[in-house]
Amino acid sequence: MLGTVNGVAFNLFGLEVKWYGIIIVTGMVLAVWLATREAKRVGLREDDIIDFMFWGLPLSIIGARLYYVIFEWEYYAANPGEILAIRNGGLAIYGGLLAGGVVMYFFTRSRYISFWKFLDVAAPGVIVAQSIGRWGNFMNHEAYGGVVSRSFLEKLHLPNFIIDNMKIDGEYHHPTFLYESSWNMIGFFLLLWIRTKKNFLKEGEITFLYVMWYSFGRFFIEGMRTDSLWAFGVIRISQLVSVVLFAVALGLMLYRRRQESVPFYSRSEGIK
What family is it from (predicted)? Predict the structure, then answer.
């Protein structure tokens, strides 16, 4: 038995519109709005952000779903009709980020835009969208952790509606969706603050800090979850990807920091 929250927001012409989809879209809209505002400050055009989203958004969703399906192939091979049922959840954020990054690379090259600057503009919006999106997991009663006691949850000073909905199949669980949502929101405000420091970060470093912050938190939170994707039955895929991305981001940041040709992230090129 699941918690008391109803995952269906309303019915439209007989079609169930789920909170999961509404919340995910809300996060995406906020991410685009934040990016368009920052684009004007760094000398990019709002149209560049909007045009990218026409390509990046659908392909990122495909990437997120493909990543999930690949690592759950045994199930989907037996239930091929479920492969496109994304309304029921099953979008792996790492798959979406990787697909979006590839699309962004080719998009920025075609527009003669700095790839790293474009990433830096997008990064804060992406992490806040991830923070919001985890509440879609809450509404779907997914992405929760191992069994805990109700008293443990009460000691976290959580509101009752969260505690009550962490009782799944008769047992209370870690609200790992909330842990990650909170971690990402803290990261969002840190990125907003740090990018205001003039001549402090070089282009690409906002993105590297985002990747390191997210990967660090995800590694530990993933270890609590009960629905992890596994490789060879012994390695949690998201933990492995977290370690690799953290190391790559740190290495690139240190390397580019030493390159005099890499410009600083500047907010003085755009509209005042």
Answer: Belongs to the Lgt family.
Q: Which residues of the chain have pLDDT under 50?
A: 272
Task: Identify the CA nearest to 114 among candidates 261, 245, 249, 213.
Answer: 261
| Tokens at 252, concatenated | 């690139």
**pLDDT tens-digit series, residues 95-112:** 888 999 999 999 999 999
pTM: 0.89
Cβ distance 19 to 8 under 8 Å? yes
pLDDT in tens, 144-201: 999 999 999 999 999 999 999 999 989 999 999 999 999 999 999 999 999 998 888 9
Residues annotated within the binding site are 134
- Separation of alpha carbons 160 and 120, rounded Å: 38
Q: Which residues contact 13 (CB under 8 A, 6 or more apart)?
A: none
Distances (CA, A) of 226 to 30, 79, 176: 30, 21, 10
